[in-house]
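It is worth pausing here to work through a concrete case rather than discussing structure prediction in the abstract. The textbook approach is simple: state the sequence, then state the predicted structure, then interpret. We follow exactly that order.
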Amino acid sequence: FFNDTATTEIYTEQIVGSVRCVQETDPYHNAIHGADVASNVCYFLRQGLGEPLLNIEVAALIIGAVVHDIGHPGLNNAFLVSTKSKQAMIYNDQSVLENFHVTTFYSITKMENCDILQGLEDLSLIHI
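Step two, the predicted structure:
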């Protein structure tokens, strides 16, 4: 499904659309930021940098670009850990924001009409 640029862009739009339901509290780390990063990734893919990648790797790259800061609270890991925030406690002070972003993304995939990973085999899900 990533054999042409148009398909890649449509898939990216689907990903961006599925994450819009997350409440944004940070004026920078928002859906526009995710779309901007994904747009840049797609640009580099169109330049041929994605040629050695498998389709599933391209999917993971685009998904990662969109959701890398999803739900970002506007604070850094050091602050969250030093203030003993709820997120720091949940993730045992280890890569707090990174774990939070991934968990938030997977939570979205459980919402109605938002499972962009639907239909992938379990082995493919491990790679993403």
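Step three, interpretation. The chain is about 60% helix and 0% strand. Helices lie at 5-19, 31-49, 55-67, 77-82, 86-90, 96-109, 122-127.
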